[in-house]
Amino acid sequence: MKKIYFILAILLQSLSLLAQSGSVTLKQVIKLEIPREGGANGASVAWHPIQKKYYAAMAGNVSFCMGVYDIKGTRLSPKEQETMFDVRGFWYNPATKSLQMNGYDDFGWAEYKLNSKGLPISVDVLLEGKNQPTEQSAGAFNPKENLIYFLNESGEVEIYDAKTRNYQEKLELKIGYEEYERIDDDDFETLFNDNYNTTSIIYTGMKGAELGLLNIQQNVIELYNASTGYLTRTLNLPAGAPSFEWLNFSYTNGIYFLFNKETRIWHGYK
Hints:
10% of the residues lie in helices and 39% in strands. The chain is built from two helices and 20 strands.
């Protein structure tokens, strides 16, 4: 009987570890097609829960395209719709009920004003100047704690207070390592710059797997614990999924988005 209990205990422990650090393969569930030329890189995608619409911004110029889509991916905006802001990170803020973003370099932080059809018509700047680690940093918003996360050049997470807009602290990610693993190589900066998308971080809201990085060498999305910095889950991307060393990676409404620069389509995976 003791032997049976011992075996059961081992099985339960194994299942627990699998649940925490298990690997699953994502499947494509939606496509958002950018309707015109202008810009090579997708900035980010944001979901507006009141409008029930996706907003997909191109990076690089205020005149580049902003696509607005329904929940199935059907475009609702005209081809001429512009970003009006050089977007990098992009999110919905439930406290202000608005779409907000950080921009390229010293563009600062801003939010959109929408018309009655839910299309962006103007931009209100919330914070001027460079308030992020790098020129291309694409921020991710944590609405529960009102924080904005950015990746710096070393692969560390720099955290800002979204309300006061002040820098708070820095989190070291144990790049590629789970908590129970022995860290043999702590040169996380080299690991990060050689293997990952270096500009874009995502916030999932999932407990213990709040932050995500795109590993472009292994074609996986890695989720990390926002408190400990350790890897907790690995999500395999299907063959052929686009992945790039900067930008073109986003998360919103429970969907992981990757932008194909050749076809100009945001592919959403879940």
